[in-house]
Each structure stands twice: as structure tokens, then as C-alpha cells.
Amino acid sequence: MADRRAACQHGRVHQTETEETLSGLIEAIILGVVQGLTEFLPISSSGHLLLGQYFLGLDQETFGLSFDAAVHLGTIVAVVSFFRRDLTAMVLAFLRSFPRPDLSDDDQRLAYLVLAATVPAAILGFVLEDLLRTSLRSPWVVVLNLAAVGVLFVVGEAVGKKSRRVSTMNFREALGVGFAQAAALVPGSLVRGRR
């Protein structure tokens, strides 16, 4: 009788572990769908991921920054695949620029502008890492940022230029883009790669 009871309890434990695994898989799929649907829309995918985790009551240890990085890896693969020709042209232009860059060449200029725009986000991400991992991942921060960015989008569309040529951009503007991208480190704030 004791063996049967132990077997039943073991079966329940195994069933519970299986249910937890299945539940975790379903939650991961839901968040993956949220990421896939929001990444290429003019909204913050990171903010929506965090809100999805919050409303589903998911554990931040399981579905925290590491999970966010994993779902964003899929996005990076898609973006690199889609822009592979442009990225290859930029890398080759950058390598061609040594020992003396020719910034009248649009590909070389774009490569250097992208590098300049990367600097603010890299520095601020490093300096503010602890804050970005804790306080700034609050659902309330996300909601407030989404609202503020919505207002910025409306104003930006009304007053902003619709397109620019690379040859007309300067390094100060590239750094400005970089600081805007650095703000995108906070979930719900700015949207990476959008105008």
C-alpha cells in the first residue's frame, strides 16, 4: 500500500513538473508572439514584453532580461537577414576607408554615422546597467513611457522631416540619434530604428 501511495505521489509530482513545463512553454510562445508582432510596429516591443509578463503574472527570474535577450535574438537574425546587402556594403565601405576615410562616399559616411550613433547607447547602457535591470523595468515606467512616446510621435509626425539623405547628415545629428537610441534602453520609451 505504501508503495502505491509513493507511486501515486511520484506520478503527481511528475504530472506537476510536466504541467509547469507546458505552462512555461505556452507563456514563452505568447511572449514570442508579442515580440514578433510588436518589434516592427512603431511601438516599444520591450515595453510590451514587460507588460505581457506583468499581466500574465510571470516570474521575472524566469522571464526577465535573459528571456528578453533571447527573443530579441530572433529579431536580430531577421533584421540582419533582411538588411544583409546594406550591412555588407557598410562593412566593406568601412574596411575600404582605411587608412583615410572618404566621407563623400555614402556607404563610408553611413558606416561612420552608425558607429557614432552607437556610442551614446553603449556608454549609457554600461553606466546605467543596474538601474536598467531594476527600477526602470517597472510596469508603471513602461506605461508612462509609452504615453510620452505616443505624444512625441504625434508631434514628430507633424513637424519632422520625412526623409533625409545620408550625405546631408552630420556627426552631431548621428550622436543625437544615438542618444535617442540610448533612451530606448528603457522599456516602453523610444522605438529602435523607427522614424
UniProtKB/TrEMBL annotation:
Its main location: membrane. The chain crosses the membrane at residues 21-43, 63-83, 110-128, 140-159. Signal peptide: none annotated. GO terms for cellular component: plasma membrane. GO terms for molecular function: undecaprenyl-diphosphatase activity. Its EC number is 3.6.1.27. It holds the Pfam family BacA. One of its GO terms (biological process) is peptidoglycan biosynthetic process. It is found in: Cell membrane. It is a multi-pass membrane protein. It catalyses: di-trans,octa-cis-undecaprenyl diphosphate + H2O = di-trans,octa-cis-undecaprenyl phosphate + phosphate + H(+). Keywords: Antibiotic resistance, Cell membrane, Cell shape, Cell wall biogenesis/degradation, Hydrolase, Membrane, Peptidoglycan synthesis, Plasmid, Transmembrane, Transmembrane helix. It comes from the Bacteria. Belongs to the UppP family. This is Undecaprenyl-diphosphatase.
